[in-house]
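Weekly structure sync, notes
Attendees: PL (lead), two postdocs, one rotation student
Agenda item 3: pending single-chain targets
PL asked that the sequence for the first pending target be pasted directly into the notes so everyone works from the same version. It is reproduced below exactly as submitted, 466 residues in total.
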Amino acid sequence: MSENLGSAGTMGLDTPPRLAVDALLDDAGTRIIVCCGSGGVGKTTTAAALGVRAAERGRKVVVLTIDPARRLAQSLGIDSLDNTPRRVAGVAGDDSAGTGELHAMMLDMKRTFDEIVEGHADAERAQAILENPFYQSLSAGFAGTQEYMAMEKLGQLRARDDWDLIIVDTPPSRSALDFLDAPKRLGSFLDGKFIRVLMAPAKVGGRAGMKFLNVGMSMMTGTLSKLMGASLLKDVQTFVAAMDTMFGGFRTRADATYRLLQAPGTAFLVVAAPEEDAVREAAYFVERLAAERMPLAGLVLNRVHGSGADQLSAERALAAAENLEEGGIVDQESGKAGDRGSGADDSPTDVPAADSTSDESGTAGNSTDGNGTTDDADSADGAHGTDDADGTAGAITADEITAGLLRLHAERMQVIAREQRTRDRFTSLHPEVAVAEVAALPGDVHDLAGLRAIGERLAAGVPAGA
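Predicted structure, written out during the meeting:
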């Protein structure tokens, strides 16, 4: 169904149910929140803002990011994040007991794998595994290892019970849900013919094992040696033999974490920007989570624009701007049209001189709204401020400034209409999904104050001016 999001939508649909973010964070039964979505939509910022808000409302929170970008550490005022949860200074609960805490960490895939080996094998075997060249390659970047290690780390955090809320920030794009497949892929890998072949000699043991290897597998191992190299094949066989007793534990823990993600204490938040591609991906996530029977809390629609002057349509604003620029006909208070003179007192009486959008920036627009719109009054009328031939600056009239601001308002209203259509397309496909629309900030989030501002917008759930 998600592919239909590219077609034209219908305006005026019923407003979707509002996502009650504070109720979700305050619910002691909510133990895990997973933020997923495509790249560049603000998942990391959303996860961090939720963590700050939950901690300051009395929860003991840890934010686990799988995204290797450093934005989370920077915004939390931490030099760097690693595989160990670190306490965030300046964040404490405002409840009477002051029990709120916030910790943050970034998944270290290889270190997590090493910890599993060290925790489930004796010292001698663990050392042999850690020094095995094939293991070193596998743990450092084998396809699917990151997603499985994310499952392992989530399971470890939940088992420790040091925090009453774990917030997971997933990698960008559709791979963000690959960790849902980790147990199945791992089981297929461990039960596959290739692994059974490599494990057979170790399982048979002794001379019988050598006889089996020499007679029953000579052709296959010869072929594998040519394809992989004799040294690599030996490394793989040594690794498999050493890991044999641990394979069952991998599968068991992965399955347990998968069931944990399906449990009522888990809530998935799909994060998107109000753009067609991002919302199309959001629809994919919603459908995939439903297919996997994962509990979906709702959709967070980031960087949504609003206006405090939305009674003035884009069409009327553009028409007024043209009239001002051309000295033509403008609306009069009586509703009749008249010629515009050059006097300063002849300004329109029912057309605002500028977009009085009371959005978060307190200006006519947002210079970093990501919609290709330059919301800067200087750019709108900058052409009128060119130097005269004698080098003196040309005078910019009040009419020219007003016309420029009216055009900015028209652009903002067009952006708002486009975002509304995009949201309505999603809502038409998934009317049951609760939505929180987060008003755009005038700039990037780079500190705790910015994260708190995002948290307030998340809780409000509506864009500025709505």
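Discussion points:
- The mean pLDDT is 75.
- The two ends are 29 Å apart (CA to CA).
Action: rotation student to compare against the earlier draft before next sync.
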